[in-house]
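User: Quick sanity check before I run a bigger batch. Here is a single chain. Can you write out its predicted 3D structure?
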Amino acid sequence: MNVNELEYTYAVARIRALEASLLTDSVIDQLLACKDEAQCLGLLSEKGWGNAETENDVEAILNCEEEKTWQVIQEVSPDLTVFDVMSYPKLYHNLKAAIKEVCTEVINEKIFYDDCEIPGREMLSIVENKAFERLPGNMEAAAKEAYETLLQTRDGQLCDVIVDRAALEAITQAGHDAKDEIIRVYAESTVALANIKIAVRCQKTGKSLEFMKRAMAPCESINVEQLAKAALSGADALREYLKETVYADGVEALEESPSAFERWCDNRMIEAIKPQKYNAFSAGPLVAYLLARQNEIKTVRMILTGKQNGFPDEMIRERIREMYV
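Assistant: Done. Predicted structure follows.
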């Protein structure tokens, strides 16, 4: 056993202990059974969610749990670069937000993320000064193209497509470069599911084949050209294509409802990472724990939002994600 593997055994032992505090399906059922948001928050408090400063503030509690999760990862992981790819969605979101703020001169203070490689204020400064060479990897080219496109066309959707496609390509590259299997699994699943979501949305909104090709990023488990052509041919053709792929079990969810399909996409990711919890000499259990925590935070957010708005329990339940434990 080399030093790195030994370091991971200690880290994994810590994560194993923390897995015991992850929310189970039965706890999720208890949250659903709560009569209102206040009762939900009481149950979450019993489970250790939030802290003395977040009492009854939903957003503060959820942010606190996200911060706790990253703090654990930073404390135990022998190599934090493994987790870089997990922050790409926030990093590229910051780029989109900065470009739109600079080009439209509409200021929104709370739109940026600060827990990624380039925090919001720094990203805004880069775009304001057109210092795109300071951006990593493929971001420089994407930033230039998105910036010029928004200035010339005022088409915010096209700007989003350019940056989102670059984010998917960066995730794909990270997967190809990764030594850890879980990052390869995460990258492939993330990009493939994003492509399927794009196809579903574009089919419903009547987007062109050219638009879909521009939005989708190549991956190994989906042929994006065939996917786009199927979406162009209609909902039935799209479902028939998906039945021929490893994502065939998503067709039933797609037929049920948009929310059921979104839930299936998240559950598919959880199923993909579950085997990693048994790889004790790698980053697998750490990455799996991080994704599991993000999944339960998202699920709790859905339940609390539903309770806030008085949605029927069944409507909330159809959006509930599968838990990791």
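The first helix runs from residue 3 to 19.

User: Great, the batch can go ahead then.
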